[in-house]
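Thread title: Can someone regenerate the structure for this chain?

I was given the following input by a collaborator and told the matching C-alpha cells would be attached. They weren't. Posting the sequence so someone can regenerate them.
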Amino acid sequence: MADTPVPLQAQPGTAELRRGLRSRHLVMIALGGVIGSGLFISSGYTIYQAGPLGAVIAYAIGAVVAWQLMTCLGELAVQMPESGGFHVYAHRILGPATGFTTAWLYWLCWVAAIGSELTASGLLMQRWFPAVPVWLWCAVFAAVLLAVNLAPVRLYGDTESLLAAVKVTAVVVFIVVGALAIVGISRSDAPAPLLSNFVTPDGLLPAGIGGVLVAVLAVFYAFSGTELIAIAAGETDDPARVVPQAVRTTMVRLVVFFIGAIVVMAALVPYAQLGSADESVETSPFVTVFAASGIPYAADVIAVVIITALMSAGVSGLYACSRLLRSLALTGDLPPAFARTDRRGIPVLAVAVSLAGGLVSLVSSYVAAGTVYVVLVSVAGFAVVAVWAVIALAQFVQRRRLRAAGTDPATLPYHSRFFPFAPVFVLVACAVSVVASLFDGSQRLATVIGVVFTAACYLVHRLRRGSGASGRVAA
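Best answer:
Regenerated them for you:
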C-alpha cells in the first residue's frame, strides 16, 4: 500500500520509549486530563448561562461531538500507535507544517494549564496553611509532577490512575447522593424536587438558543483531554487491543459522569445561586449538595478532591507536553537531544523543558498577566478546537487513502463505524464553535490570538524548512 504510513525514523542516538501502559491506564490518563476544577467549581456558572435544561442539552451535544471524535482518534491511534499522537497523524497525513503547528498549539495549551493548576493548588492549600506562601506550595507540587513523570511508565500510569480515581469517586458519590435527593431521600423534610428546578423564572431556556450555543463552546473545553489517549498509545503493550477498549470505556464514563453531574446540579442547586460570580470552593455545587445531604466538612472534602484533580491534570499535561517535544525532535523540528530517553525509557530533557514552560506560565500570570499570560491562555483555549479539527480531518483523509489503496477499513483492528459522518460532524462543530466565539466578547480575543499564532507557526515552519524541503514522512 503506497499510501500506508510507515513509522517515523528516530534521530541518531535516540532510544525507544518503554511500553507498559494498559487499557485502564489510558482511560485514567484521559479522565485525569478531562475531569478538573471546572467540573467541581465552574460548571454551576455554565448552567446559569444556558439554564438547567439548556446546559443538559449543551453537554449532550458536546458528548456526541466528543464521542465521534474518539472514534476518529481510535482508528488513527491503532494504525499509528506512537508517542506524539495527533502530531504524528498530522505530520504524516496532512503535511509537516500542519504537524508542527498542531504540536506547538497543544504543547502551549498544556503549558498554560500546568501553570494555572500549580497556582490554584497553592491557593487552595492556604485554606489550611495560610502562613505558607503560595509560591512554596507551587514549588512542592511542581516537584511532585516532575517526580511522577520521571518514574517508569507503568508507575506513572499507576500513579495517574490513583489520582484520577479520587475525583472519579467524588463524582460518582455526588451523582448517587444527588439522585437520592432528587427523589426526596435526604436529610431534609422538603418534598422531592424532582426536575422542578428546570423551570426558571424566564422559562425552560432563559438565555434562548444563543445561551445553549455559548454553553456548547464551554463544553468542548470541558471534554478536552480525551485526546491524551492518542499520545499515550505508543507506550501501550498491545495497542490494537488496548486502544479500542480505552476509547469505548472513556466515552461511556465521561458521558455518565458529566451529564449525570450536570443533571444533579441543575435539579438541586437554586438557579439564582448558580449565577454567583464568586467561583470558590464554598460556592461549588458539589459543596451545596454534599452539605445538604449531611456529609461533614463538605467544603474541605471538595477542596482535597480539587487539589487531587489539579495534580492529576498536571501529571497528564506534563506527560503530553514531554511526548510532543520528543515527537517534534523525531521529525527534525527540535534538536535530537529532546528525543533521547534514559535507561527507563523516559525523555528526561523533554519532561524538564515542559515543566519549565509551565513554570514560566505560572510566573507570567503574576508579572505579565495582561500580556504574555493572556496570549498563553488564548492559545490554550483555541488549541482544543484546532486539535479536534486536525484529528477529524486526518482521519477523513487517511480513510480515503486506505480505500484508494484497496484496503477495506473493516479489516482494521478498530475503525469508526460512522464514517464519513463522524469526521464531517466534528469538523462542522469545530467550525461553528470558532465562528460563534467571534460573537462572544469573552472569547473573541482568544480566537483571534489563536488564529494569529497558528498562522505564525505555519510561517515559521516554511521559513525554517522551505516550502518543499520537508516532505511528508510516509511511504
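The chain has a mean pLDDT of 80.
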